[in-house]
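Chapter summary example.
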Amino acid sequence: MKQFLFSVVLVPAFLFSQAPTNYYNGTAGVTGYELKSKLHDIVSTKTITWHYGDLPNFYGQTDLDHYYDYDASNDTILLDMYSNNPTGVTAYHYTKENLISSAGTEGLGYNREHMMPQSSFNSNYPMYSDLFFVIPTDARINQRRSNYPYGIAGSTNYHTFTNGSKISNNGTPNSGYTGRVYEPHPEFKGDIARSLLYYVVRYEGKLNSFNFYNGSSPANDTSPLDGTEEKAYEDWFLALLLQWHNNDPVSQREIDRNNIVYGIQKNRNPFIDHPEWVNAIWSQNPVVVIPAAPENLSASQVSSYFVNLNWTPSTDADVLGYKIYQNGVSIGYSKTPSFTADHLSSSTLYQFTVKAYYRNYTESVDSNLLTVKTLEQDIYAKDLLITKYLEGTDSNTALEITNKTGHAVNLSKYRISAQFYNSTSANYYFPAPYELEGVVENNQTFVILNPNSNFSCITNDDARFVSAAPQMTFNGSNYLELRYASSTIDAIGTKGVNNFGTLADISLYRNSSVTNPSFMFNLAEWQAYPSDYCENVGVLSAAEIIGTEKIEISVYPNPATNILFVKGKQLEKIKNATVHDFSGKQILNWNTPFKNGNYIDVQKLLPGVYILKLDHQTLKFIKK
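The structure predicted for these 624 residues follows.
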């Protein structure tokens, strides 16, 4: 947007501030897709995900029209980019109270419009309620736009709206897509372009899992996403967004909105703060050669449920990343010469290869073929597990999740799902889930917290994820799941029933004896506390959960020759002792090992470093 009705706008001075000092630390001198990934790390950390139902009230802060049709006697008018006419007369106006579900004609009310159609991400949170690309627009235009991409109107016009925006066949050059597009008013094209470029920065790491192809052929594929995490959009659509961005510079309205949304979501649109970054990321010279294949693919650790892969890094500066294949099927990508293949089955053969790829996505041939067999058993948890469930008055809800898998876990395919009851249809249902993101290291916990909570031991600043999505509005009646993709990993409560009799007004801390998740909830695995109880949340590992007595144990001599002595109280209560090598493979096993003494015989072990597991405690020792 470029035009204004008046030169002075009476809004608080802080709205004209820019990004906080140090917000974009680490971006100096960085360009290309490396800059895009760095911006992703910045704008996706410590954000707040609000409920979709919260957006209309937020629109009363983020989308007031102080720029075109301002009326001092009615300063609650919303700016709708689909119907506002900056170069003429706007036919109608809305306030945030005029939300409706559908309309047969223009001017009856507004919808919450996803500039990137929600079908591309299955309506999942946090995408579903992101204020940077979910905006108020006329309900009828929203319906007519459907899930068509933005574009340049062609010769066949289907609808012309009151502000001159159109739905037509695609006239955008070099697209290959012959379906319909929505062309907005020229004054808002740059605004829309920067919103969609923010989208693929904010959700990098998830884009390949989105529905980037939704047609029977390219000619009717309405999704402009191309399935890549870096470039993100098809060439024709990316060229269009860059053109709109360059032709329609950042306006004061965008600056103001960016600052207000930052106050609500705690993140920013970097292309409003730094418009030059758009071309710095996407205007790159093509690379036409084929990269060299990765070499020396090997496994640094083989366990029951995961394999750590490593290979020699490429010395070619044009290599953007590596694609990893398991039994011939792509399972992920890495920017570094390492990757953890997880969610494997024990005692199973797997074959791995890796390919390098350039920024234009030309790929190398396969690396050497690596065949490994996972262990029958090891000391690590099979997957992430929920270790704390906090439920209390008002919005006091939180979940703690712990990683004891023995490796860092990529959270991009993990979801929190909750069951609700529809009293009208008398059915239980699951709204679209809340997706996690980022990486959690081994032996670390993280917390998902309702932003409206008022716990004594944790705040929004302390939590890894802060969300008011439906899944974090549980009240003791809900069944909750931790999912990996579509599979249930861990659960609280019973599916298909009202759990109020079991979960109402209590907080649950998982017993330290529980080291693996379970899709079947067992209350005996938990220690119950009163409603609003909150101690040591997000601090302790699963083996150190409050309410359990920790026995101090040590071993000597260390290094040991043939006998390893164990020192500690109540050794006779230990039921099982096992020795594992550093891959996690079990070497020795004893039941009630200290019934008649305080030592174990390790003379059969080869020299090396080992792990002694005593029930649920582990100690490292060296065999000479």
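To summarize the output: DSSP finds nine helices and 34 strands in the chain.
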